[in-house]
Amino acid sequence: MGFSQLHLNKNTSLQVTKTKLDSLQRAGVELMIHMCPNCHIQYDRYQPVIEKEYGVEYDMVHMNIAQFVALTMGVKRVTA
């Protein structure tokens, strides 16, 4: 119900994502590796939006599986 609702009901989408981020933070998650590209977008792109809108801060990193595999293979981070 996160990304699929983003364009139809942005507030609900962000609230659902915030609820999940709250739960992940309580569990001590520091790194999330996403198989689903839409999930990666929802968490990585909208975590800062949620932090600003709700006045919260999450200390976790989001990566898609390809990024994670590349890092484990020793590929250096490229910044644009």
From TrEMBL:
Annotated TM spans: none
GO molecular function list: 4 iron, 4 sulfur cluster binding; metal ion binding; oxidoreductase activity
Entries under InterPro entries matching the protein: Cys_rich_dom (IPR004017), HdrB/HdrD_reductase (IPR051278)
Cysteine-rich domain sequence ranges: 9-42
Cofactor(s), names only, from the UniProt record: [4Fe-4S] cluster
Alphabetically ordered keywords of this record: 4Fe-4S, Iron, Iron-sulfur, Metal-binding, Oxidoreductase
Top-rank taxon: Archaea
Pathway this chain belongs to: Cofactor metabolism; coenzyme M-coenzyme B heterodisulfide reduction; coenzyme B and coenzyme M from coenzyme M-coenzyme B heterodisulfide: step 1/1
The UniProt record lists the keyword Transmembrane: no
Name assigned to this protein: Cysteine-rich domain-containing protein
